[in-house]
């Protein structure tokens, strides 16, 4: 396994280098440049326009700019964003990438869990009205036009019912006189969620060693203690009201994305589960007298999870692609909206930085998927 990991890491490094080269030349080949934003100003003389172009580094040959950009990238410098001047690209990514990751990871985890559970039950209990209705509903959600569905969700739950804000990241009037910045509160929310997740995972592993009758009470008590600890922390910081404002703005986008992703996870799990139930080891488990619940969860569902896990990991990696649409509709200031704005403004350093972010997630997702395959399916072994 260790040798395989080193081999895969070497492949990832080579692939990443080729990816960086490809996106630079493709983005650089687009017509026009960021200087066009200023060239139309009649007050600028030809000499001033040429000086502006030189300051942006747009008067140099492509291969010179490629060499400089690659050298700067190896030093951790992605350049200065033209549209966010004078902020470095890496600072813009550090500010907005967590917003995209939190939004799409939360929606993907929720949709994966409920989609997997629903698909497992549908495949196990075939032929009923619930299965047909769920399948039709799942196909409808899976094939729905995302911008239209997002606008309908906003119109119903935000505009008509007023349960959620119409868009954006925060309510500016609620932050007047706030003792800290928005990003500080958001980062604290992320760390709170990470700590809670680690504690929850530890709890579930520990509870699994208890007797069957003790697991459910212990799980609920442990979850209540974790939730109470998080609540006490935010009450003591005095920033709870600001954290609630961010979560309030985050809820509707998560629900919208989760509904769309839920359908895909449910249908994929159902189809994979139906294939797994035909395997010989399922018949052998029944012949041994193993309970139906154990056959469903430990034998059939675990192997049916493989394609679902792959879909889950890759959906996290390409979150920025879906973010271009979703974040624009919900006015969510994440990487997807940043990429769209930078592309429209011909902000090449920012576009390259956003694509580097996407490529890094995608290659990491491939490696994680390979490791998870070996963990979930004991038949898979890497030399």
Describe it:
The chain has 15 helices and no strands. The chain is globular, with a radius of gyration of 25 Å. α1 (2-28) runs antiparallel to α15 (348-376). The protein has a domain at 89-179 and 239-376: MetI-like (MetI-like fold). It has 383 residues and is an all-alpha fold. The protein starts with a helix and ends in a 7-residue tail after the last helix.
SSE ordering: HHHHHHHHHHHHHHH
Overall 3D shape: globular
Radius of gyration: 25 Å
Q: State the low-pLDDT regions, or none.
A: none
CATH homologous superfamily identity of the domain at 89-179 and 239-376:
MetI-like
Separate helix tally: 15
Q: Ends: how far apart?
A: 6 Å
Concise summary:
The chain is mainly α. It contains 15 helices and no strands. It is 76% helix and 0% strand.
